[in-house]
Write a structure and sequence with these properties.
The chain is mostly helical. It has helices spanning about 1-15, 20-40, 45-65, 75-95, 100-115, 115-125, 130-150, 155-165. The longest helix is centred in the middle third of the chain and has 24 residues, at about 75-95. The model has no long low-confidence stretch (mean pLDDT about 80).
């Protein structure tokens, strides 16, 4: 993987030609390396692996979007809906394994607060559409309300301690 990653990078540096296929190949190999190294070969917590892969996929989508001059579809649509789906998936894991809620609580909170990131991207004018950002923030806020209202009392008290309520 290192050789496959370094050869296109070396060709770009030595020739000065910037072919888009080389960026895609280098990006694909780097993304695959993160996937294999930090998902299958790592002994990290599953929640941490999940957050790392969300960050990896978001970065790959952002780079593909801006390297290909596609018009901002990654920050306008893909990343907000990726965050919505991932937070719902994390909440379903927490709900399904209620005995392990303390293991996933920090990662679930991190993911919920990351769901407000598209609104920040809209404010600093990286994103040009407001409604996907608002949907992402609304889904995160709704999830927080559901967590606070319907989940286990211990989970609520953990959130209260972490959020200093």
């Amino acid at each position: 993987m290192i050789g496959i990653f370094l050869i296109p990078s070396l060709v770009i540096l030595l020739t000065g030609r910037e072919d888009f296929w080389m960026y895609r190949q280098t990006l694909g190999v780097a993304s695959a390396w993160v996937l294999v190294r930090y998902t299958f070969l790592s002994k990290m917590h599953r929640g941490k692996k999940f957050l790392l892969q969300i960050a990896n996929l978001s970065l790959v989508l952002f780079i593909i979007d801006h390297a290909g001059s596609a018009g901002g579809w990654s920050v306008n649509y893909a990343i907000p809906f990726l965050l919505i789906c991932s937070s719902l998936l994390m909440m379903s894991v927490v709900y399904k394994h209620k005995k392990l809620w303390s293991d996933y609580a920090v990662y679930a909170m991190s993911l919920l607060f990351l769901s407000f990131l598209p609104c920040l991207l809209y404010v600093i004018r990286v994103s040009s559409l407001f409604w996907p950002s608002a949907v992402s923030a609304g889904a995160a806020l709704t999830t927080l309300i559901i967590i606070y209202g319907f989940l286990d009392k211990n989970f609520r008290s953990y959130f209260n301690r972490r959020l200093h309520f």
